[in-house]
Design brief:
By secondary structure, the protein is α/β, with parallel strands linked by helices. It contains 7 helices and 6 strands. The strands form 2 sheets. It has a 4-stranded parallel sheet, sandwiched between helices. Strands 5-6 form a two-stranded antiparallel ribbon. The C terminus is likely disordered.
């Protein structure tokens, strides 16, 4: 089967939606963003959702919300877009790279524990190409060492592995720590 990567499936309904936003008072906020946030929160079972312009902004905001900054370390993967590490660096923290699983290219949960130090404040797994990291193991390690988990689900919003859904797990956990 040949799947043409560059062909978009954009119909008249999508084009009309874009025109509706462009003709509105607000391009980056307003009723369309409110609707998106409500629908996504409902879909993932969260109480709240904040729509941002990029996953980069979401990662940066998540790190700041957890008070991650200078002197802190965040375990992540080098097999990702540069924004994952730069979001960590922009907070003043240090990215600590852990190798990936051979079969998925995702963060290898079995190698994470050896990278945890007294300065580790979070683990930032990146789910690639619709495939999730081993979040059961990562969650277990985070709980054992008292660190946060911030998932980059830009490639896997609807994914599930071992009965764990991406955003549900992250939002519920983050909400618990932010109370």
């Amino acid at each position: 089967m040949k799947i043409e990567f560059y062909k978009h499936n954009i119909g008249s309904e999508e084009k009309e939606s874009v025109i509706r936003v462009l003709d509105s008072v607000f391009l980056t906020s307003g009723e369309v963003v409110d609707e998106f946030e409500c629908n996504l929160a409902h879909y993932v079972g969260a109480h709240y959702c904040v729509g941002l312009m990029s996953c980069t902004a979401a990662l940066h905001l998540s790190l700041l919300a957890l008070n991650i900054g200078p002197g802190d370390e965040v375990i992540t993967t080098p097999m990702t877009f540069v924004a994952t590490s730069t979001a960590i660096i922009h907070c003043g923290a240090k990215p600590v790279w852990v190798d990936v699983e051979e079969n998925t290219g995702n963060l290898n949960a079995d190698l994470v524990e050896n990278a945890i130090t007294e300065n580790t404040k979070a683990i930032l797994p990146v789910h690639l190409y619709g495939q999730m990291c081993d979040m059961r193991r990562i969650r277990q390690l985070a709980d054992k060492h008292g660190v946060f988990v911030i998932e980059d689900a830009a490639h896997a919003l609807e994914s599930e592995r071992d009965g764990v859904r991406v955003v549900l797990q992250f939002l519920c956990h983050q909400e618990h720590h932010l109370r």
